[in-house]
Fold this protein.
Amino acid sequence: MIITTEKEVREALPVIEKQFHKFNRGRLFLVAGSKGMAGAAIMAGRAALRCGVGFLDIAMPEAIYPVVTAALPEAVSSIYDPDDVKSMRKVFTAGIEKADAVAIGCGLGELKDRVCPIVFEQCGKPLLIDADGLNHVAGIAFEKELLKSGDIVLTPHSGEMGRLLGMTGREVEADRLQAAETAAARYNAAVLLKGPETLVVKEGYETHRNPTGNAGMARAGSGDTLTGIIGALMAQGEDGFTAAFSGAFIHGMAGDLAKERFTMRCMLPTDMAEMLPEVFKTLEIDA
């Protein structure tokens, strides 16, 4: 096991060149949000934009379109009717085809079992699965062959990991490394197990332990911000494993800066997204 370093993250980050335009700075298709959970799509989307993705396309039900588009005018919206499978398939097919990477799960709520199967069946692009996407995976007889993507990232906390492995969250916490290794092998994916000293595991790669971050980040919405960060890095060309350990480090750095400015008690996930420009200044990226 190795501890992720700032130098390693800096060297892995995509370079922004003068001749770049929005379509070769990465296009992320983010499938997120539902009625009552528009904030998840907003937080993930804002973090993705702050991490340099050139084009953000958010797939969402019409019920949350007004609030999401008002909060994220830089993103485009792919609106679907969750009661119309044909409509959903058309929207997801178009979004996936154009995307460089796909992130799914944040705030899907009860829509997860309608949305996830369509995306999973069609997605041949690098794919990040979080939150309710993970809950869908845990609730079905999951077969990795159903996923066309060869580059998958799972980002569970201990409770979600427990559901993925048929264990309790307490059992996961008793041996976090073993749980992450088991999930990585079972799902043929890079697995980021959230928590103190986040672990990133993939078969054939050296496990990374993340040194950044603090207890103030333990707030609803923090994981949505992390999804946006990792998804943006994947869309810009980082492989899933590298994007996962780099994203965890960046997320933690943003959390540490938010702690300094707002204190652990008062800091919010939205504050972390606003700290990302300072993070990239430290990482010497010309954003």
Remarks:
- The mean pLDDT is 93.
- The chain has twelve helices and ten strands.
- The longest strand covers residues 55-61.
